[in-house]
Specification:
The chain contains 4 helices and 8 strands, in the order αβαβββαβββαβ. The protein has helices spanning about 1-25, 40-45, 70-75, 110; strands at about 30, 50, 55, 65-70, 80-85, 90-95, 100-105, 115-120. A 5-stranded mixed sheet has the order 2-8-7-4-5. The two termini are about 40 Å apart.
Length: about 120
C-alpha cells in the first residue's frame, strides 16, 4: 500500500513538472517591424509575460525603433523624451516588468501608423 501511494505521488510529480517548466519558460517573438504590418493584431493575438523577448527586424535605412515614455507620447508619436532608441535593424528587447510598452518608428509613426503597444503580464 505504501509503495503504491509513493508511486502515485512520483507519477503526479513527473507529469506536473514539465507543465510547470512550460508555463515558466520565457517566450521569444519575431516582429517584422515594417510598414503594412498589423501590429494591433500581433499584440492582441499574443499574451506577453515579464521576461519574454521581442525580436524586432527591420531595414535600418528606412526605420528605427523607439520606446515611448507613456500612452500620450505614443498616441501623439512624440519621440522625445523616450525610454530607448535603437537603429541597428535587429533588436532583442526583453520585456522586463509587467505593464504597458509602447514602440514607435520615428520615420513612419505619424505617416503610416508604424507603432505598437503591448501589455505585459506578471509571471
Amino acid at each position: 500500500m505504501a509503495v503504491a501511494k509513493y508511486s502515485a505521488l512520483a507519477l503526479i510529480a513527473f507529469l506536473v513538472s514539465p507543465i510547470m517548466v512550460m508555463v515558466m519558460a520565457n517566450q521569444s517573438y519575431e516582429v517584422d517591424w515594417s510598414i503594412g504590418v498589423d501590429f494591433t493584431d500581433f499584440a492582441t493575438q499574443n499574451t506577453f509575460f515579464a521576461g519574454d523577448v521581442l525580436n524586432f527586424h527591420y531595414d535600418s535605412a528606412s526605420h528605427n525603433l523607439l520606446i515611448a515614455t507613456d500612452s500620450d507620447a505614443f498616441d501623439q508619436c512624440q519621440m522625445t523624451p523616450n525610454l530607448g532608441f535603437y537603429k541597428s535593424g535587429n533588436e532583442a528587447l526583453t520585456l522586463v516588468e509587467p505593464g504597458n510598452y509602447y514602440f514607435m518608428c520615428e520615420y513612419n509613426c505619424k505617416s503610416d501608423g508604424m507603432k505598437m503597444s503591448v501589455y505585459v503580464n506578471n509571471m
